[in-house]
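Cross-check.
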Amino acid sequence: MSQMTRSTIDKAEIEHFSRIAAEWWNPQGKFRPLHKFNPTRLAYLKEKICQHFGRDPLSQRPLEGLRILDIGCGGGLLCEPMANMGAIVIGADASETNIEVAKIHAEQSGAVVDYRATTAEALAEAGEQFDIVLNMEVVEHVADVDLFMSATAQMVKSGGLIFVATINRTLKAYGLAIIGAEYVLRWLPRGTHQYDKLVRPEELESALSQAGLKISDKIGVTYNPLADSWSRSSDLSVNYMIMAERP
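Predicted model, tokenized:
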């Protein structure tokens, strides 16, 4: 089956996130965990990108001129800070509602982001190429993981990077990220994550390697309930991030 006849879109997932799209920029709303998580992932992305491209992380616009794709961008929580650091940012999401919310917020904040209601496979088919592809907290929501990973990896330029963040398929993750976060603490609407759609690190590493990319870093991200904050960790059993580069 060709990529033209396959799709990464899971209609139920798109409908779910479209229904709560207005909540994207409310730090106390349904995306509160993502707002709490954002500083940790932003710091990691900035550090690794600056190291790789020889940029000064202390400069005002350290990502100046780098072309970045944030696939599954939602309301733009990563797009806007990346753009404010000087990057040329394309934010793509299959939900037109998410894209409209993101556009409105960018206009209000003054951030310059090219938002598009489209899919990874459509962008790859169009021959789009990027210095950096951000594949963050989205792979667990797509219908075809292999196609999604292939399409996103295909868009990484030679010498470029891809970052993938998701939730591991472990019993610990089921207990904390699904039962704990959705049913006990009610951080997220019930049904936000499905255990059988979670992806293990080795599965992502295999997909990235098959696409010709080299794994250059992987870390876990853990939550401290006492401090109500997230931090990097060597524990990949729940939340984790992988960085890979195209030689």
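The chain has eight helices and eight strands. The first strand starts at residue 67 and ends at 71. Passed to J.P. for a second look.
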